[in-house]
Amino acid sequence: MRVFLCVFKDFSVAIPMAFISSLYLHTEETVYNEAVIYNPQTQDFFVSLFCLFNLPSETTRHGIVLKNEINDINVTLLSTQVDSEIEIPDNKIYPMPKAFKNMSFSCFFDGIQFSEDTKSKPLLFLNPEQLIHYIIRKKL
Known about the structure:
Strand order of the largest sheet: 8-1-2-10-9
Order of helices and strands: EEEEEHEEEEEH
């Protein structure tokens, strides 16, 4: 699976390339206090990955526009920066452990990769479809 990596302090998030419409540099100096922000003028949704994970807000460097074939809403993920683009073999992606089910954000991920190097950070695989369904259910 080809993914973009967004790196955080203790983990990384893999966003499947198949679900990405575009990537842009985010130049606004806005502090986001909510995980999902709706702009009624443009009818766009912005998802602050910092707030989604209950992390302290950092400078948002990239916006990742997701493809959405469910309806006409636009969803953009806001992150520190997209670190790299890599290919990860499917046999290296494991289902989310049951212990993660207690975390509020776990439903947005459908896989995890643990490194053989214990000092490396786990890699969480975002399921953009589940995230979009959540936004539609909660915000519309």
